[in-house]
Amino acid sequence: MTDAGLLRVIGAPHPDVAPLPPAAPGGQGVRVLRGVPYGTVDGGRPLELDLWLPAPEPGGGPVPVVLFVHGGAWRRGHRGDMGLRTRGWEPGPFARIAAAGLAVASVDHRLSGEARFPAPLEDLRTALGWLALRADELGTDPGRTVVWGESAGGHLASLLALTEETRPLRGAVVWYGPSDLTTARGSYVPEDPTSPEALLLGDAPAVLPGRAREASPLARVRAGAPPFLLVHGEADTMVAPEHSVELAARLTEAGVPAELRLVPGADHVWYGASEEQVEEVFAASLRFAHDAVG
């Protein structure tokens, strides 16, 4: 056997054809498949996602999908985390979404210490392709997909929804996501070469204006994009609420349905908001996702 032939034999199966891991019970009939490879990167770690699948209903058809993108300043974070204020929930937020009848694919993507933009956006598009390819096995409907992200994940969710080639998306839920990397807002200045935005792009956004614009949802708004729900804390000190306010306005100008919710007293990651406010934000986001997928 040649070296090339041996490599084909000993290498792990490609995610497109690899067997799915066994499902574990997640309560309320929800099934959880953890650490499912969905893509490969030459010289990098496998790209993985967790799948939360609703209990199958007799005679029920394929279920819609929420593609969840975690936050962490594009530098850190984990696919199992929806943010500070949901970490103590029991059942957790993904289990709640699945119990409501929507599958959840919570994805890892390459971080800024591993690759520069547009790598994480490319990873999300790979995840959508994998979900479409394996839909029959999963019992999901890739044509009814909503992307949902928080903070840096909200930024990537916005970009994914505004990428014209991304056809399956029916909506985008964006929690306190940056929408413009080109302009100073709040504590952010595009001249800073040490900012999370600079680490994402490879240099200060002011030094890379073309790439900063490419990475700015505000600059990529287009007619025909799916509906958006933008939720932001009025007192956000990390990502100024103007990011969501201006993106909502630009979407509306383009004829894209955009709902904006500002949460009084809430800082980033809903810090300072009451438990009732956080529960209402989650409930409103879930209602939006349900309505978007029909």
UniProtKB/TrEMBL annotation:
Domain of life: Bacteria
InterPro entries xref list: AB_hydrolase_fold (IPR029058), BD-FAE-like_dom (IPR049492), GDXG_lipolytic_enzyme (IPR050300)
GO molecular function, one term: hydrolase activity
One Pfam family linked to the record: BD-FAE
Domain called BD-FAE-like: residue spans: 49-251
Keywords for this protein: Hydrolase
Hydrolase in keyword set: yes
Annotated protein name in UniProt: BD-FAE-like domain-containing protein
Organism per entry: Streptomyces cacaoi
